[in-house]
Structure formats: C-alpha cells, structure tokens
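Open question from group meeting: does this chain pack into something compact, or does most of it stay loose? Before anyone orders reagents, we agreed to write out a predicted structure and look at it together. Recording both the input and the output here so the notebook holds the full record.
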Amino acid sequence: MNSNLSATEKEKLLAIARESIVSHIRKRQIPDYTVEEESLSARRGCFVTIKCQGKLRGCLGQFTSDKPLYQE
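Structure tokens returned:
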C-alpha cells in the first residue's frame, strides 16, 4: 500500500483531529466519524503535534495501531 496521502486526505485528517480536540475540551465527547477513503481506514500509527502561536503545546502518537488511521 502507498503510504502517501493526498492533500485532500491530509486536510480531512486535520479537520477530524481539530474537531476531536475541540469536542474533547468543550463536551468531553468525541464525535463518531466515518470515512470512505481506504487510505484513511488503514491501520497505521500517527503523530499529532499541537502548537499555539508557534510554540509547542503537546504531541502524542504511536508507530503502529490496531485502529484505522482516522481514529488515531
């Protein structure tokens, strides 16, 4: 499988990550998402870096996963 994601797929993952973080902070409930893209449903690890005004605020991730990429 090709590990590269298209710009559209990257934008979708970024939107899911942002919405999940905001939902967690405000409501303590993460929305359920469904995706049709095979590359976003593949089981892969990922890393997320959070910056505020250019300063690192946090990061987390893992190399492998038993969940689809969009759920990581």
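Observations to bring back to the group:
Helices lie at 7-27, 38-41.
Residues 5 and 39 are 7 Å apart (CA to CA).
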